[in-house]
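Lab notebook: predicted structure, single chain.

Context: the supervisor wants predicted structures on file for every construct in the current expression panel, including those that have not yet been purified. This is the next one on the list. No modifications to the sequence; it matches the entry in the shared construct table.
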Amino acid sequence: MNRFRGLASILALGALIALPGVAAAQANYPDKDIHVICGYAPGSGADIITRYFAEKLSKASGRAVIVDNKEGALTTIAAAGFKGAKPDGYTLMITAGNSTLSSAPHLFKQINYDPKTDFEPIYGLIKLPFIVGVDPSSPIKTLAELTAALKKKGDKASYGYSSAFAQVSTELYQSLAGTNALGVSYKGTPQIMPDLASGQLDFIFSDATFLLAQAEQNRFRPLAVTFAEGTSIAPNIPGMKAAGLDGYHLQAWWLALAPKGTPAPVMKKLEEWFAQIVNDPQTKTDMVRFGAEPYIADAKTLKALLPEDIDNWGKYAKIAKIEPQ
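Prediction complete. Output recorded below exactly as produced.
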């Protein structure tokens, strides 16, 4: 019995010695470089967004922030690896929550992480609308005119898409508008544009970043944005409600994540830094270049949003008739 008491005393003493060291490490965070996982290819628009926030985090934290690209399978490869990262605040992930967390369970038969429980949301970053439109040579000038033209054409109408989000955006519109255009898959949105210009495709939904640039060069005519009430980045383009389609609201949203179990003092610092970055007026100005708005949402808000968004994406996948891969 005395021997066990002695062992217990040694373990208790060890814990008392270790705790100040852990507390000190958290108080001094960060005292080394921070790594940010990016699930997108280097040089892509998503990679540029990730690096923008990584650079801002470096300035806020006073440490170098290194971006590690691990692209593939719509960010699920990166997320599965990130799940195993040490929860100390030195490995984070910046990603599209609607892709990595909300839609992935419905697009893949198996993902090696649980979007609801394996990560700690830190703060929202941006939200991006998609845009629906036609080639400038088209006689169609409004969303109502597009809907009428598609109904007249029936299943002979067609659209192009290059991502699950673009496909879902289009099919949600079709389900509400009562149209039946055929979807044609492309590798990327730039590959869609020649077929849109030639008349092989009737319309397209894609990200604002790309299509606003096309519109500026008179290669695209925007009809509406996927935010119900419109967006400040393109105030002259109506939202779906103003364009005459009630019940439609769809957005891509980004956030910063930490591994599950990251200490509360570290999470507090990270949330403060990202809140500072996202609420900075300069960030709003800079985000216009990406066709995005700042997304002001704290950890509590994101945790409440996630289950609802996962459920919604289950409905969207069924509407779009997407079979899990």
